[in-house]
């Protein structure tokens, strides 16, 4: 099942040299774990509900274990300060859904489990 690293980052108006170095080097840390960018630094075109300050980053991985191993790797841990010294944000790792996933089937299971015995 795929997994994703998702970032909501708050870059400053002028990017620092360290952030540019981070951007230049991050792909090499992703490659051993099958990581690839799906979204990189995009601003929301429309916020339909709530608020979303910042830029969106979504990185796909073959599995959660790959995402976790990438984040915990020495190569990526060495890069993190280049970003965090210059921009705030939130980063999380999440599981994706399996191929053929249907929300209605999940709803049916939840309904069935909520019925009194």
From TrEMBL:
Stored InterPro entries: Dimeric_a/b-barrel (IPR011008), DUF1330 (IPR010753)
Domain of life: Bacteria
Domain DUF1330: 2-97
Record-linked Gene3D superfamilies: 3.30.70.100
Protein name: DUF1330 domain-containing protein
């Amino acid at each position: 099942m795929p997994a994703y690293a998702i970032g909501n980052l708050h870059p400053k108006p002028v990017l620092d040299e360290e952030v540019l170095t981070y951007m230049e080097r991050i792909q090499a840390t992703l490659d051993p774990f099958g990581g690839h960018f799906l979204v990189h630094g995009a601003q929301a075109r429309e916020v339909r509900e709530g608020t979303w300050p910042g830029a969106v980053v979504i990185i796909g991985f073959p599995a959660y274990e790959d995402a976790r191993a990438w984040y915990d790797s020495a190569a990526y841990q060495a890069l993190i300060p280049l970003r965090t010294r210059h921009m705030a944000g939130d980063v999380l790792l999440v599981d994706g859904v399996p191929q053929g996933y249907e929300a209605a089937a999940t709803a049916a299971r939840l309904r069935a489990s909520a019925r009194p015995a």
